[in-house]
Description:
The structure holds 2 protein chains of 2 kinds.
Chain A: H1 2-30, H2 41-45, H3 50-79, H4 83-94, H5 101-112, H6 117-124, H7 136-160, H8 164-172, H9 177-206, H10 209-215, H11 222-231, H12 237-271
Chain B: E1 7-16, E2 19-29, E3 34-38, H1 45-53, E4 60-65, E5 68-69, E6 80-83, H2 95-105, H3 110-123, H4 139-151, E7 157-161, H5 169-186, E8 189-194, H6 197-203, E9 206-211, E10 214-219, H7 221-226, H8 231-236, E11 241-249, E12 252-255, E13 258-261, E14 271-277, E15 283-285, E16 299-308, E17 313-319, E18 326-331, E19 340-344, E20 351-354, H9 361-370
Parallel strand pairs in B: 3-8, 3-9, 6-7, 7-8
Antiparallel strand pairs in B: 1-2, 1-4, 4-5, 9-10, 11-12, 11-14, 12-13, 14-20, 15-19, 16-17, 16-19, 17-18
Helix pairs in contact in B: 2-3, 2-4, 3-4
Amino acid sequence: xxxxxxxxxxxxxxxxLFTAIPMLIVFYYAFTNEMGxxxxxxxxxxxxxxxxxxxxxxxxxxxxxxxxxxxxPMAYAMARLEKRxxxxxxxxxxxxxxxxxxxxxxxxxxxxxxxxxxxxxxGLLHLPPLHIINTPVAVGIGMxxxxxxxxxxxxxNSLENLDVSLVEAAEDLGCNSHQVFSKVILPLSIPGTISxxxxxxxxxxSTFVISRILxxxxxxxxxxxxxxxxxxxxxxxxxxxxxxxVMMVIITVFTLITDRIDSSEEESVLMS
Amino acid sequence: xxxxxxxxxxxxxxxxDGEVILDSLSLTVDEGEFVTLLGPSGCGKTTTLRIIxxxxxxxxxxxxxxxxxxxxxxxxxxxxxxxxxxxxxxxHLNVFDNIAFGLKLRGVSRAEQTERVxxxxxxxxxxxxxxxxxxxxxxxxxxxxxxxxxxxLHPRVLLLDEPLGALDLKLRQEMQIELKDxxxxxxxxxxxxxxxxxxxxxxxxxxxxxxxxxxxxxxTPIDIYNEPANAFVADFIGESNIFTGIMKEDGKVDFFGSVxxxxxxxxxxxxxxxxxxxxxxxxLRKERAHSVQKPETLLPATVLTCLFKGIYYEMMLHIEGxxxxxxxxxxxxxxxxxEHVFVDIEPENIHIMKKSGIETMTVQKxxxxxxxxxxxxxxxxxxS
Lengths: 272, 384
């Protein structure tokens, strides 16, 4: 018992230093003004930014949904490949992640900008150019591109770990291939899908790099707003802390809800 | 009474990546029979079962079920269900829904589902377990759910792939009796796969011994045990002393320089044969007198070891004048180590078999121990 405590000490120290103390500082700032006196005005003033909240969530939800729609079939196809094919597919998915995040996002800038690769290509086909850069669409594309692997991998993982004999048992008991999917494969991949959704939604709702590079300030997101409070001209650390706190609460609630869906989903399958 | 040739496999070939798994395998099963496919791992028994279940397609040959060719019929539309090796219960469903799974697919009404599942739970002795999560069940209970899930559909054939492999010895013996009981109560044809010869002997109406994708022998447990067709079967079903002898004439076999009376006939004069002696059939005499065989032919032996095994003693015997050979004998009467004895055997307990091409490492190893003509070079190379 004592040994366990002893080995845990560095982690506890680490947690206190880099998680607990910063959180307390955020709390302190969120509930004080620049004079250091207690106030709730930071939260009251936040209503001015409700459009930012709305835009951020809308974009994050859309990106997550698109990632799910693209990611699930990809993960499913991957899990059905031979071992060799799986390894290749895995490398292809991981490969872009070995490059710097900023670099990848800037690469999309050169693709999407008005005189960029995409419009150049459209011009060759005698099609009218598209105006994508500096719109929410560009930000969405950037998010989907960057976060898609986080959707694919957990889903792939849950599908890959699925015991083949469960599929055979389902066939044996009378399922056709659609029923095998809907009654066995899909319900058993829900935990992976849920973690995919969380892993895409959480960074998507808080990103600021993507929206700044590809959105060009056209649509300010929550992440941008918070960054502006600390680094921008409108320095307001108290407001920044309050915004961070609200976002943290929202993300926590979101995670708890998805956890709940995860377990009740299993039950609802039982009832069906 | 059940139909003859209810299920027929006709010259089935199957190979994976050029490796032959089943080699022109033919098998017939009568309705209501309890048939066990027995063999070492890799002998093709599970593949045979999977072909019957519809999870594998044979490369060549036909599968007939109740007079109909079923090669191309998917598992879902065969009246055949499988109990999988590791049960394959659906972890996202509770006990009730696992058992009702097939009923729901067949559009059975809710009320009938409840009734039939309840009846099954009673049958497998899991009353009141409806709402339990399958993950909370013990291995034996999961096994029962897996069986209930299949027989609730009233299949005409039940396939069981080493269903007791994961259970401990005591539970396995209990489940053997329960399965046997279930079989006689339901009247369903059972095809059972195992590598455990004792399990096969206990439960089966018919045992099919397989090795290297072929059937070596099929018959009742008693036939297989008492009249093994070749050295491999003899070695696989129970422990045996297997060695080479010379058939002098009908009813006379020569091994280790003694000519014993036996009951086998039909061999050519001086033909080299496999001799199989069950350890429990060796009678150890202190004197040459009062023996079944002619007193002068009895092999003199020295007891090397005598181990207490519970209900019997297991002894290793050194045959005098033959340094490389040891007999195994089982007896309820202990003999002290170092004691001199004479080996007596009832003529009908000496099993003579034609030398077969089908041999395995284990048999060859035995032969190295027992064969007077064997040299070191004949021993299988363990590295290769």
